[in-house]
Amino acid sequence: MNAKNVIENLKKRFPNEPEYLQAVEEVLESIEEVYNQHPEFEKANLIERLCIPDRIFTFRVSWVDDKGNVQVNMAYRVQHNMAIGPYKGGIRFHSSVNPSILKFLAFEQTFKNALTTLPMGGGKGGSDFHPRGKSSGEVMRFCQAYLLELHRHIGPHTDVPAGDIGVGGREVAYMFGMYKKLTHEFTGTFTGKGIEFGGSLIRPEATGYGNIYFLLNMLATRNIDIKGKKCLISGSGNVAQYTCEKLIELGAIPVTLSDSNGYIYDPEGITREKLEYVMDLKTVQRGRIKEYADKYNCKYVEGGRVWAEKGDIALPSATQNELNGDDAKTLMANGCIAVSEGANMPSTPEAIEIFLKNKILYGPGKAANAGGVATSGLEMSQNAIGLSWSREEVDARLKGIMNNIHENCVKYGTEKDGFVNYVKGANIAGFMKIAKAMMAQGIV
Ligand code: NDP
Fold first, then answer.
1. Catalytic residue at 124?
2. Counting atoms of ligand 1 from 1, which one is nearest the CA of 94?
C-alpha cells in the first residue's frame, strides 16, 4: 500500500469530503509501514475495505414546529465497520452535519472502539437539525420523526447509537421512547439512557473522566503531578463539564470554557460551585457561556479561542478542527506540556505536527476520549445481563480500560529515542485488531 496513492484515489472518489479525507490520511500515514509488513492485507485490499463505510443511510425528516410550520431536515446514519461487533457510535444534531463529517466520525469511531477492547464496530449518525433555540416539544417531535426512519436500521445486535454534539440524555430518551413504541420491544439499542430505564452510572461523566485518566497516564510517564496545573478547556457541553469536574477533584486549576460564541477566562479557577452553575446554565437553562463572565465578573472574549490564554495543559472538548497550527504555536510559546483531546479530531494536521515536533504529551481523541464509548459498551453489557453495576464498579472498569488503551499506545507508538507517539500507537493498535478480524472473516 502506498498511503499517498490511496488518498489520491479517495480524493477523486469523494472530492467534497475534506473532514473524511483528513481523518483517513492521518491513519494511513501511521499504519503504512505495519500494513506493508503483511502482503496478505494488500492481497485482500484491506485498506479500501476499511476506509469506505459498509453503508450510509440518507433520509429526509419532516416535523412540525411550535408555530405549526412543517420543517424539513436531512438525516443520516453511517455504518462504517462491523468486523468486531455491532455498529456503535453517537448521533450528532448540529447545523454543520453533513456526510463528510459523519464519515470522518464513523471512521475514527471504528478505530477507537477497537482500542477499548470491547466488541463494538464503528458507526455515526446525525442531522443538520440545530437544537439551539428549539423548545423541548420541538426537540421531541424531531427525535420522534428521525426515529420513524432510523428504527429500521438499528438494534441491539445491529447498530447501537448514543449521544454526541447536540444529543444528550434528553434527546436519547426521546429517541429511545419512540424506538420502543415502533418496535414494541425494550432492548439496549441506545446507550446514554436515563438511569431509570437501563442507563449506566458514570456514562454522562465517562468521556471527560476518561480523558483525564488518560492524561494522568501520560503525565506519569514523565513524573509530572497534575496538582496545581492550569488547564485550558474548550467547549462547555457534556465532555467539557466532566473534564472540568475531574480536574477540580484532582487539584488542577481549570481556567477556561467556551461555546460557539466565545470563551471565558477565570484566572481564579473554575470551582465546584461555579461548575454547578455552568451545568445548570448549559443543560437546564440552555444559556450561553458569556453569562458566566457576567455572574463571576471575569474576562469574556467574543469569537475568541481559549488557546490564546496561558496554560500548562490543553483539553479541546468542543468540535473538530478547533485548534489550528497558529493556536498550537501559541500553546507551545506559552509553555503547554500536554494536550489531551476530549473532542474528535479537534487539532488540525498542522497543529498535530507541531505537538509531535515539540515532543509534548499529545493524546489524540481516538485514544483519549474513548472512555465515553467504552462506558457505553459497559451499558450494553449491563443491559444484556439485566444488571446495574455500582458507580464504583463502572468507574474502576473505565479506569482499567483507559490504562489499557494507554499501555497499547505506548506499546505500538514508542519511537527509537523513547518518545511516545500516541497518534501512531493508537492508530496501529486499533488497526491490527480490526485487520485480523476482517482477514479471518473473508471478503465480505
Ligand atoms: P455538547 O453538545 O454537549 O457540547 C458541545 C460543545 O462544543 C458546546 O459548548 C458547543 O457550543 C461547542 N461547539 C459545538 N460545535 C461547535 C463549533 N462548530 N464551534 C465552536 N464550538 C462548538 O457535545 P459533547 O460535549 O458531547 O461533545 C463535544 C466533543 O466531544 C465532540 O467533538 C464530540 O464528538 C466529542 N465526543 C463526545 C463524546 C460523548 O460521550 N458525548 C464521546 C467522545 C467524543 P454551542 O453550545 O455554542 O453549540
1. yes
2. 15
